[in-house]
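Weekly structure sync, notes
Attendees: PL (lead), two postdocs, one rotation student
Agenda item 3: pending single-chain targets
PL asked that the sequence for the first pending target be pasted directly into the notes so everyone works from the same version. It is reproduced below exactly as submitted, 293 residues in total.
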Amino acid sequence: MKVLIATDGSAGAEEAAWLLAHLPHRDTLDVLVLSVVPDYGVHGSVEVVEWMKAAIEAERKRAEEATQRIAQMFDGADAHVETLAREGHVSKTILEEAAARGTELIVIGAKGHSALERVLLGSVSDSVATHAHCSVLVVRPTGLKDREHDTLRLCLAFDDSEPSRFAIKQISEFKWRENTQVDVVSVLQLPMAYTDVPFDFDLNEMREALKQKVDQVIEQLSPVVGQARGHVLDAVHVGNALTQFAEENQIDLMVMGDTGKNLLERFLMGSASRYVLRHAHTSVWIARRPQTS
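Predicted structure, written out during the meeting:
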């Protein structure tokens, strides 16, 4: 698997890399650790220009040190690791580099290294997750690193779509530990109570059909995870239901499929994944088949 780990030197970025490094993989990982120094533009008085140049140089040095720390996390692992430092617009550069290298998974922390930079640059992780043409793992601190040998709680959101089936395929490429607990969750989306559109269907029948499909997923995952449970939830809002489930069950990682194609399809079909990404307090893995631009 070709993986790009994006780092800004923050603790969040290093925790994202740590999570990937601690997922035993079946095949060799081809890892690029990428740091991007923002291109702020240097202009103003002589004093301001000199100060900016010094600040950018310090940022560049910090970024290079961060890439080396992350590269060392893979020492002894079945992985080929390359480091690269670039300058430019952060999210755009990450996306361009990922596309150029045929990346299958981008790994990124949910937050940057300072509040000021997040205000200036916007949410890099949100932009990357929305516009990437491959899978994206956005990592939030859930305390997992402090309880490394405890149970890893993973939730797979399943809607029987091709993207969610690809999510199953992608996570099956990793050798999850025996103490990994997987909750396979499918949401039966209920009609709005105030709708004027008549409907005539059997919710119990639909719920049972979903349960059967969830049971099939559990059977498929049984060789690669420690334990798996199935759930069918009734909800009007799919993203909110998944977010609440993650919070109530202290999920460490939510895995879900997404179309990853054009803007219209992301708007129509990707609302649940975007909602979870922006509202859940857990790490989120959005699985997409790599797409060409």
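Discussion points:
- Residues 42 and 52 are 6 Å apart (CA to CA).
- Strands lie at 2-7, 29-38, 79-88, 105-109, 135-139, 152-157, 180-189, 227-235, 253-257, 283-287.
Action: rotation student to compare against the earlier draft before next sync.
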